[in-house]
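Sample intake sheet
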Amino acid sequence: MKTLVVSVDRSKEKRTIYALVVVNYGNLMELREKGSWLKHIAELRKQEKRSYISKFPQRFALIKPLLEYVWVTPYFDDLYNQMSKFENNARLLIIDDVVLSKKLRDYQDRKNVFKESIAKKRREFRHIVLLTDNIAYISREIYEKTPNLTALKKELRRKGIL
């Protein structure tokens, strides 16, 4: 039985980062309860954004046990390879609108694929979408300061995200 929800997001400014978060469908309600603090970082004011990002690792530690897998990469091919590992057990794929329309066109007609813009409006998927978005955003900010994949992964591990 397919039990996983796979969420893919892209964050882009000077550099691009892809984030992949996998959660068991049965954990979505608990994720919603424990992740009630999740917000869309881009919508926060500068001071709120700084405070939110600094508190993120401690808050994330509470919901990390609910997640099956977290992956961050600047390379689409790496993302695609990681995503394909979960495809057979994926009950649902939530994919960033731009990624779906430009890089994963063959996924558009699948019944178990949701655009991120639609999924974030549905109560049961909102928190997984926000979490994936937050991880991509924070990872991109780190990667823009130090555009080195090894340094990015090391910093994300230090923060407890990977």
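Comment: The first strand starts at residue 4 and ends at 12. The CA atoms of residues 32 and 127 lie 6 Å apart.
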